[in-house]
Amino acid sequence: MSEQVLLEVKDLKTYYPIRSGLMKRVVGHVKAVDGVNFTIHYGESFGLVGESGCGKTTIGKTILRLNEATGGEILFDGKNILDMDADALRKERKNMQIIFQDPYSSLNPRMTVGQIIGEPLREHTTLSKQERKERVLELMRIVGLNPDQYKRYPHEFSGGQRQRIGIAKALALKPKLIVCDEPVSALDVSIQAQILNLLEDLQKEYGVAYLFIAHGMAVVRHISKRVGVMYLGKIVEVAETDNLFNECIHPYTKALMHAIPIPEVKEGGKKRELLKGEVPNPINPPTGCRFHPRCAYREAICEEVEPPLLENSPNHFVACHFCQRMEV
Amino acid sequence: MSNKLLEVMNLVTQFYNHGQSYPVVDHVSFSVAEGEVFGIVGESGCGKSVTAKSVMRLISYPPAKIIGGEVLFDGVDLLQLSEQQMRHIRGNDIAMIFQEPMTSLNPVYTCGNQIEEALMLHQGMSRAESRAKAIEMLSLVGIPLPEKRVDSYPHELSGGMRQRVMIAMALSCQPKLLIADEPTTALDPTIQAQILELISNLQKKRNMSVIFITHDLGVVAETCDRVMVMYAGKVVEQADVKTLFNNPAHPYTQGLMRAVPRLNAKRERLFTIEGIVPHLANLPEGCAFAPRCPQAGDMCRQMRPVLEEVGEGHYVSCFAARKGVAENV
Questions:
Q1: Phi and psi at residue A226, to the nearest 5°
Q2: Cβ pair B261:A218 closer than 8 A
């Protein structure tokens, strides 16, 4: 795998303004993403996990500039996406696509499957109508749809098949990066496995890189080479997948792993450590380490000083004042 | 087995839709003992929720109708009761919590009001008594500052807190049976873990029976004593949780177990069950799972298998599984 950097996100901040009153003045900000750094290499899949409201979807959308960033840089193929004007951005979007969580609401019900998959080709290429149709039929075959269904409408398909339509569309322009925003969360277990396998096959075949966003740890572990764990708009831990799952360090990552019910029956009970409380409000995040109100290991420093994301062991970054101790 | 609290026999619930009629729950039988947690697992559209709603008689006609079977609760057939008698049982002896804590709470009443309503109706409490009890219930389910939260509206609470309010409401009348329909599916993992532990603690404390409906095999493994797996409206396998996970017999159950990505297993290509769940209106002849089944033979495509015992308390509805067991003996 090439080690060239495809996407570099530097100190990215995305705030949503809160407006109130008659004049709709801005009275505060939801700091959905607050200083995030990570990189994705060519052909790599990078997983982003966290609970709802941690900012993972906002990152995905900001990278495609479906949301405007408040600060920071996003370098895609060496070019800063945040500085681009509409024209340059349109050209660059060819190389980045997105697959959404909900296969029901993300496809236009008035367009046929052929039109949906062919739309990016119409916008971005000079192919003739006939060539476009051939390409769409080929894409349908690639993602495991029956090409005879070219003229069908989305409602005639099941959830898994609709997700395949979304994947075919994302793949149409041979992008370098696909943002997969919880692509299997809405699907049944037996269908999830089919889609995950398809995404893996496509990556091998076309060398596309994935930013894989999910809240299911097991799914992320399965598909990603490296994983970042997010909490309240910050990345608290990043590591190679096996590293992270074998020896996670941050107390939040540990709690997240413990929280997942394992489909196995073991002798002698299933005791585990539970995380107390809930995710705090991102309008007024806690001072210091954002996780400290729920952390079992917190000390005075955690309430005052925000821990930076530091390399704890090669390629394993953690944002915790006591990461050395956690290892023990 | 100890006393059976609930016994469902040959329950059939049919849907009427566009002039077609088809069973959504097809001759389903199971029993839940006192103090037992019974799981119903399956993918969407397999009939697990309709089974639970049929037990509660929360089925509206049209489109659906219970057309056969018996639901014995404490020896009384619920299907023979009048609507008025049924109302005494619902919320009092059998309570239910739903998947969506936002849509199942009434947004225009405070949480306290909604808990008090059941107490005044079923237990004949006065307003003051029921309010005190509501506060007690809210603190029991771990809501901080229950004296204040009792006057909160649902929109002021987070998803996890709302689910706690639902549980407080369901348990306020000390039901003998709690039906939990995907109670944690809409919640985040750390909150899900909290709610699962809460339900399980309360279940033990009160020796309550619970029917736990979910599609998550992990949740089943952690909470249930016995499990039944449903596919296309039918029970395909039923066993105690240890047998089911260590020794699944039906190819569908086996496939489900292998299709889940795991935290601890080696990362390799996932096993898939090919194809999709068939529509209930046009099920294949023979076994409903046959078109997706790697072990299906000619017999499976022509005849419908029935649920038969293959081990102690282990029931499977599959020709191949039965043959496998016979060969092993």
A1: -125, 155
A2: yes
What is the least distance, in Å, from the CA of A58 to any CA of chain B? 17
What lies within 8 Å, CB to CB, of A243 at 6+ separation is A313, A315, A316
List the single best residue of A104, A164, A187, A189 to mutate versus B (max B Cβ within 10 A): A189
Give the count of domains, chain A: 1
Where do runs of H (alpha helix) occur along B124-227? 127-140, 146-149, 159-171, 189-206, 217-223
**3-class DSSP state for residue A316?**
strand
Residues (pLDDT < 70) of chain B are: 1-2, 265, 324-329
Sorting pLDDT into bands at 50, 70 and 90, what band is A1?
Answer: very low
Query: Omega into B63 within 30° of 0, i.e. cis?
Result: yes
State whether ipTM is beyond 0.85. Answer: no
Q: How many CB pairs under 8 A join A and B?
A: 119
Spell out which chain B residues touch chain A, with contact meaning CB-CB distance below 8 angstroms.
43-44, 158, 160-161, 188-194, 196-197, 215-223, 241-242, 245-246, 255-257, 259-264, 267, 269-274, 276-277
Nearby residues of A106 by Cβ (< 8 Å), 6 or more positions away: A100, A166
pTM of the model as a whole = 0.86
- Check B158 against A215: CB less than 8 A apart: no
Strands B20-33 and B209-214: unpaired
- Domain containing A214: what range? 5-95+175-237
Give the CATH number, domain containing residue A65: 3.40.50.300
Q: Which residue has the higher pLDDT, A101 or A238?
A: A238
Cα of B62 to nearest chain A Cα, Å? 24
